[in-house]
């Protein structure tokens, strides 16, 4: 009988063993030198916990709400592409696992299962990730379908005017099949993938995504949907303030899993800047580099309302399908609960800035 994985790192190792190299690299790779990819994880390690003792922690409540929807814990499923590469059931298996763990899933625009399939797979609250296409009617159609099938919010990705240079995909000559939800809506002539060109992801992005996307387009999106709009891809205070002024319902501090601009900062290192800038006007979420319940605790202490987990979900899906995704979510929830107990906090609201010490804190203490 094989040993069950006991942490996310072990799930990553299993995924690396069972997936073709091209697919694992697609899931796990980053842009350029992958400095930001490494830093997303390393930055968490530089934040220390400051536990309080002699607190009654016999009852721990990890539940929270987002846009009025209750979750068992502040750990959500981030939008990631092409789950069928990891398991034949794809996003349907992921959706069922998220529902079983009573958490929110954000369905990727690059889902390998149709919006309808995921919506009918189980009864749960889900959000839909959107990109703005050069042909705006494509985006409008996807929004209408998301509304029709009961998705509760639109998560607009705003950090991709052009695709980041993902050298592993280029080297592997990665080919992206037509995305299920774009059938009949988009025709992309990517041509043969040659040694000179490498990955056809760049061709797909250049022919479909709109590099002219700007703040005025938030008004356009609001004009075609009554759903709350969350902006994903903000890492500066200035952009966070502008987003609030535009009337969005939430912000995701994200560098696209380090797949866009290399040498952009780790998300956890700019979270507090964004949280302070919005001053509680909208919930601030974060993704990127989360591998432990302690990471979740640190993000909450620095002001995040919830975290989104991407690659670990894919690792669990590749390793054990729906069961693996459930295991990953339960693992992170269990680690968060233990961290809360050991830090003397019995509810999410009790986790405060005083429970962590950042690198900046240590530097200031020496001045």
From TrEMBL:
Flavoprotein among keywords: yes
Family: Belongs to the FMN-dependent alpha-hydroxy acid dehydrogenase family.
Subcellular location as annotated: Peroxisome
Residues of the active site: 256 (proton acceptor)
Keyword Acetylation found: no
The protein's name: (S)-2-hydroxy-acid oxidase
Binding site for glyoxylate: 131, 166, 256, 259
Pfam families, alphabetized: FMN_dh
CDD domains: alpha_hydroxyacid_oxid_FMN
Class in the EC hierarchy, top level: oxidoreductase
Superkingdom, taxonomy of origin: Eukaryota
Gene Ontology molecular function terms on file: (S)-2-hydroxy-acid oxidase activity; FMN binding
UniProt GO BP: defense response to bacterium; hydrogen peroxide biosynthetic process
Any single GO CC term annotated in Swiss-Prot or TrEMBL for this entry: peroxisome
InterPro entries in alphabetical order: Aldolase_TIM (IPR013785), Alpha-hydoxy_acid_DH_FMN (IPR012133), FMN-dep_DH (IPR000262), FMN_HAD (IPR037396), FMN_hydac_DH_AS (IPR008259)
Cofactor(s) demanded: FMN
Chief localization: other
Keywords in alphabetical order: Flavoprotein, FMN, Oxidoreductase, Peroxisome
Domain FMN hydroxy acid dehydrogenase: 1-361
E.C. numbers: 1.1.3.15
Species this chain originates from: Rhynchospora pubera
Amino acids binding FMN: 79-81, 108, 129, 157, 232, 254, 287-291, 310-311
